[in-house]
């Protein structure tokens, strides 16, 4: 009954806490979570302190056991010394007996003389030996009694220390168990509340992020589709305009080629006429020199000389007219060249402005995408968690990613095709200008810079 009541109390408290947490804002929830984390850290620190104290007590026990072993080793050394001393006394007795026998055999005569003295001396020696042995034995017994007393005292102290240490350890263990039980009883409910709050917050955040992601994808798709449609319309219109301009340029180039052919044929005719006139002038000058020489000798031919001068003057007028005609023709060719230059420069300016506008639009779009300020790594992690939780198939995820990649590739292809068209048109204009310059060089007309 008590357990059921406690559970009901916990459930009611959890419900009240859930309602209170739902009413709270994100900042307040963050503060509550921080306080709970700080409390948990404090409890963990207390636990670590208790563990450290236990380790210190264990270290003290180990030190005490080491001291006990050292005392035990000392007692064993003293007992060994006593045994060695007994062995030395027995050896001395044996050596004395051996020496006495040896001296008896060596000095039989002296022994006979000194038997009485030896007997007296032996009596004295035996008495002294007995006294010394009695003293030694009494001293050894006293030392043994003292050592036994010390041993018993040490054993009693060790037993007392062991019992006191065991009592202390038991008391510490009982206190630690009590603290742990109290801590577990206190923290179970708090941990359950924290876990429930975290689960609710995670669910709300996942739903919020899912909605944000869906809205963002919708907005991006709308923007992308509108952008693609606008680009398509714009590109189709500009391509049509460019095709019409190219046709006009081709017609103008054909007209220029026809005019070039006519001008070339006229120049060839005038060149042939000039050559024939020059040959005639040379012949006339030769005749004039001959006539001048002849006039020195013949005055009758003066009239003929005047006639020849008139013919020569007429020829000079004709040559002047030809020079004027050639100058006018050169001026016309220069006008055609300037018109062609203006045409090419205007077309190049229009094309450059057109393609620069497209590039500027592309950069503006990239800047807009950069200015969104989205943390893509966190979004990617949250999406992967959401996909795992909801059990979305990898095939669906792959199809969506393929669609996005296809749209991006299509946009990049269209932009690259535009750049290729720009290069091609500029190349055609340069080729047409080079062809026109070659034709002018064939006509022997220098291009003015």
UniProtKB/TrEMBL annotation:
Keywords: Coiled coil. Transmembrane segments: none annotated. Residues 221-418 form the Growth arrest-specific protein domain. One of its GO terms (biological process) is cell motility. InterPro entries: GAS8, GAS8_dom. The keyword Coiled coil applies. The keyword tRNA-binding does not apply. One of its GO terms (cellular component) is microtubule. GO terms for molecular function: microtubule binding; small GTPase binding. Residues 33-74, 239-301, 355-389 form a coiled coil. It holds the Pfam family GAS. This is GAS8-like protein, putative. It comes from Plasmodium chabaudi adami.
């Amino acid at each position: 009954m008590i357990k059921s009541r406690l559970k009901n109390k916990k459930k009611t408290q959890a419900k009240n806490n859930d309602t209170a947490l739902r009413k709270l804002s994100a900042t307040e929830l963050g503060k509550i979570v921080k306080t709970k984390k700080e409390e948990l850290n404090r409890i963990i620190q207390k636990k670590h302190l208790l563990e450290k104290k236990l380790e210190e007590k264990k270290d003290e026990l180990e030190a005490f056991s080491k001291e006990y072993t050292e005392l035990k080793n000392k007692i064993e050394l003293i007992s060994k010394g006593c045994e060695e001393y007994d062995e030395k006394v027995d050896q001395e007795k044996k050596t004395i007996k051996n020496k006495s026998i040896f001296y008896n055999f060596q000095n039989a005569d002296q022994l006979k003389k000194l038997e009485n003295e030896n007997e007296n001396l032996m009596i004295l020696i035996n008495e002294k030996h007995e006294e010394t042995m009695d003293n030694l034995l009494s001293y050894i017994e006293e030392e043994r009694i003292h050592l036994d007393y010390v041993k018993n005292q040490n054993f009693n102290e060790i037993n007392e220390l062991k019992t006191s240490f065991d009592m202390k350890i038991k008391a510490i263990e009982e206190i630690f168990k009590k603290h742990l039980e109290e801590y577990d009883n206190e923290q179970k409910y708090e941990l359950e509340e924290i876990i429930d709050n975290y689960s609710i917050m995670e669910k709300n955040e996942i739903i919020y992020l899912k909605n944000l992601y869906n809205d963002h994808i919708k907005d991006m798709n709308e923007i992308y589709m509108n952008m693609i449609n606008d680009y398509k319309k714009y590109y189709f219109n500009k391509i049509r305009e460019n095709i019409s301009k190219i046709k006009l340029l081709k017609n103008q180039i054909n007209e220029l080629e026809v005019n070039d052919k006519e001008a070339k044929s006229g120049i060839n005719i005038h060149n042939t006429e000039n050559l024939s006139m020059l040959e005639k002038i040379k012949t006339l000058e030769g005749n004039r020199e001959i006539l001048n020489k002849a006039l020195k000798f013949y005055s009758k031919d003066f009239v003929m000389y005047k006639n020849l001068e008139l013919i020569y003057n007429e020829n000079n007028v004709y040559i002047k007219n030809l020079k004027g005609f050639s100058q006018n023709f050169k001026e016309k060719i220069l006008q055609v060249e300037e018109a062609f230059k203006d045409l090419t420069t205007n077309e190049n300016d229009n094309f450059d402005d057109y393609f620069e506008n497209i590039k500027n639009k592309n950069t503006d779009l990239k800047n807009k995408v950069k200015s969104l300020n989205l943390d893509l790594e966190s979004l990617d992690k949250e999406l992967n968690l959401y996909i795992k939780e909801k059990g979305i198939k990898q095939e669906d995820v792959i199809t969506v990613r393929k669609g996005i990649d296809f749209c991006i590739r299509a946009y990049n292809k269209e932009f690259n095709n535009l750049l290729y068209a720009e290069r091609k048109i500029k190349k055609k204009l340069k080729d047409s200008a080079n062809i026109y310059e070659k034709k002018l060089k064939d006509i022997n007309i220098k291009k003015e810079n």
